[in-house]
Amino acid sequence: MADLISNLAGITSPNPFWLASAPPTNSGYQVQRAFEAGWGGAVWKTLGEPIMNSTSRFAALHFNGKRVAGFNNIELISDRPLDVNLREIADTKKRFPNHAIVASLMVEPKQEKWHEIVKRVEAVGVDGLELNFGCPHGMAERGMGSASGQVPALVEQQTAWVKEVATTPVIVKLTPNITDITATAEAAAQGGADAISLINTINSLAGVDIDTWQTIPNVDGLGTHGGYCGPAVKPIALHMLGDCARHPNVDIPISGIGGIATWQDAVQFLLMGASNVQVCTAAMHHGFRIVEDLLDGLSAYLEEKGLASVQDLVGQSVHRYSEWGNLNLNHQVVARINQDVCINCNKCHISCEDTAHQCIGRYTDENGAPYLKVDEDECVGCNLCSIVCPVEGAIAMVPKPNGLPPMSWNERQAAIAND
Ligand SMILES: Cc1cc2nc3c(=O)[nH]c(=O)nc-3n(C[C@H](O)[C@H](O)[C@H](O)COP(=O)(O)O)c2cc1C
Ligand code: SF4
Ligand code: SF4
Prior knowledge:
The chain is α/β, with parallel strands linked by helices. The chain has 13 helices and 20 strands. The longest helix is centred in the C-terminal third of the chain and has 16 residues. The site of flavin mononucleotide (FMN) has 29 residues, from β4, β6 and α9. One iron/sulfur cluster binds next to α11 and α12.
């Protein structure tokens, strides 16, 4: 059986599946149950100064019959007393010495505040620290969370303060609410971070009730922006992960977070450079036991690929993620319809005719039966028809060799300049 042990900047865990800092890691009771269920690590619900939470704090986007395609929250950090959390962390670590327990921290951007909390949580035996520079609501209005995390200088400064006293690995959790996440990733590395994690939640408003005209969620008639997560954010997280993983100045390990719900999602994050993954919404939606599928699926996948360890996957796709200017513009694919499985629903014809390049024709064969065919000379290979087709395998995007040598935009511009 393949080795699932994961190592993030020296923090080891029996497998790469950690619960992200959020309601599932709110207490010792929950984290211990999660470890019993099979999770390899947990980032404790963010600790800091005492706060108060609002009621009515979650909302979800249900899309086309699928519940919780996206999840929105206006919850703040832990509302439990710090000493209670610390006692439970110590107890959990004693019971599960081989599992990873990371303390998520958020305090005011002051050196003495960071020093104090780091010393207190390390005294109870945590395996690492995660600095929460990501939370986009509530705490940000008080200068913490993403308010700090959007300013590279503040990320670097606060990371450096933590590193002055920390004896365990320091992970900096980044906010996606920024134009270029590599700027803060670089700042974290510059400040001495041992790893980064991403993404935290994305600024959002879940909806407006069209009967009452209230925001969703609302607290006694007033709404506020919340943090968006769950399956809908996965492509955004994956892009930010890839950008950081291939950045030459972000040469530290990454913990991947954002919309991971299946073992396939996890594999994609590992391939795109994550050393491990963290999960929140999927656990909130389906419970701790989803980890069984995650573990079974990942083990079987590694076996099928003939890989000995989960480490063998990490970063394997990073070099395939590049700038648009490096893409081969002479590469050509076209759509081809498999008449054996096509059900003649016409969806591909409508999409191509109305919104693409008008190259799927409708015909009638010698028996009077309708069929559709792609005019391959006109097809620009945009993939739209294969995306809208409801039948698996009915449309394949196939290479159409054109005899031209590979040429990217950058190569083309360079050739023109040298002429
Ligand atoms: C209700 C809720 C509370 C959260 N609280 C925290 C928190 O205290 N600290 C933190 O770093 N992230 C917090 N997060 C963000 C998650 O840790 C995670 O980064 C985000 O949800 C993306 O992962 P997902 O798509 O698997 O949910 C919270 C998320 C949710 C849904
Ligand atoms: S790939 Fe695009 S252009 Fe080609 S047939 Fe499909 S929709 Fe039309
Ligand atoms: S969308 Fe798919 S199934 Fe429908 S007509 Fe086109 S190829 Fe056939």
